Structure formats: C-alpha cells, structure tokens
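Re: weekly structure request thread

Next one in the queue (296 aa):
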Amino acid sequence: MLASSVITTPAGIIATRVPRYLSTIRVWESLYALPFCCMGMFLAADGWPGWSAFIWITVALTGVRTLGMAANRFIHRKEDVHNPRTANRHLPTGKLKPFEVFGLMVVGTGVFFYAAAQLNGLALALAPVAAAYVVLYSFAKYHTWACHFFLGWALAISPSAAWIAITGKLAPEAVLLSVAVALWAGGFDIVYGCADLDFDRKYGTNSLPKRFGIVAALRTTKVMHTTAAAALLALGFWMDLSFYYFIGWAIAVSLLAFENGLLKPDDLSKLSSPLFQYNSVISMVLFLFTVLAVAL
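Done, posted below.
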C-alpha cells in the first residue's frame, strides 16, 4: 500500500514517467549526433568555442533531437504496434500516451528555439526550417523508398548548424562535413530497413530494401559509407588538420568497415551486435581526435 501511494504522488509520477520519456526518445542515441555537432563547433572555432556557445549549442541539439524523435514516435505510433522490431516501444505498449509524446514535441521545440535565440540571428532565423524538417522527414517512408536519405540529412543538420552558431555563416567545409554525416547515418538506416523488409511489404511503407532488394541495399550502404569516409578524409586535408585527425579517421573507418563486413544478405543477425547498438563509439572517436587536431 505504501509503495502504491508513493507512485501516485506528483513526485512519484514524475519519477516513473521521466525515465520513460528519456527512453522513448532514446536520449542515449544523442551520443551519435552530438559528437558530429561538436566537430562542427570545434572546427568552426578552430579550438574551444567558449562555454556559452558550447552550452547553448548542446541545449539546442538536445531540444531539436527531442522534437524529432518524439515526432517520429508520434507519427509512426500505429504501425509501430504491428512491427516486431518496434512493438515494445512505449506508445505501442501503452506505457506512454500520445498526448505525452506530443507534449515532448512541444517542450523540445521551445527549448530549441530559446537556445537558438541565445546564439545569433541566423541561427534563430533557420531554427523553424530545421524544426520543420526533423518533423516532416518522418512522413517520407509513406511516399518514397528514398526515406533513408531524408533521415540522414536530419542528422546532418547538426554540424552545419553548429558552424552557423559559431561563425554566423555557413562555410563549404561545414557542408562537406554534413554530407559525410548524411551518408553515414543514411547508410545505417538502410541497414535497419533490411531488418524491416517483411513488415514494409506487409504494411505498405517504403524503403530502399523493399524497392531494390537486400543485396542492392547492402551494396548501397557500403558505397555510401565509403563515400562518407572519403569526404571526411578530404575534410582533413582541406582544413589542413594535424595527424591526430587522420589517426581518428583511420580508427573510425576501420570500425565502420568491420561493421559492414558483419552483414550478409542472408544473415542480418549481427544487427543485434553491440557494435550496431553503440555506433556512437565511431563518432566519439572522430570527435576526440578532431579536438586533438585543433588543440595541439
């Protein structure tokens, strides 16, 4: 009885709900996007950008990512019930209500806009565009097999946005970094599309594996990841970064190649490997060695 009464108090409700909110937007996956954002930040500043910029850019990323992930869960809540890969999420299981996830979207939007306003005029002016994109990309799978590329660009916004926040303008180096991130993330989304192939065929949603088959999809991922690696290598030479950057690049690309080698058209079981659950390790390696390259 005592335990039940604790849970029904306001503090008890918050204590049980907050972990569910964080889990439904997979807050730990921010570690995948945040290092790329910080790469843009440090490269634009050619070193430490200062606490104010670092804090507000991080807050902005957290807000827009909360908006995007909550919107994705809200928009796909009906088919997530029927997809074995997503059926245990919080909305399909009833652990969270649709209005709660929609509330996360509202909070994320508010946090994002406020943080952008603390940076500079261009960051604030472009904030509505970024917010609209991270919501609308979730509809792409209803209309086109190219939906993976839309998701890739949703993550690729962050390094260019960080560059704008630091310098007040968008440089071509930032665009190249964003292209690399878009190819990197979009390639992984194609891989997960392979795991959802049977569901997509049954439910009618679109994906590259559904349109062209798993063999072509995995080849496309390898081409995208190879191109992303080349873009990151070119960025290092373009910005005349020190050898530390290239060490990080070599480690990250080796891990990426190993991941791609694990996947076979007739065996996708390695998708449950910890490597695929913690892709943030790759982006963290790139970020840490980028910091060394600009700081030493």
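The longest helix spans residues 51-75. The radius of gyration is 20 Å.
Next request, please.
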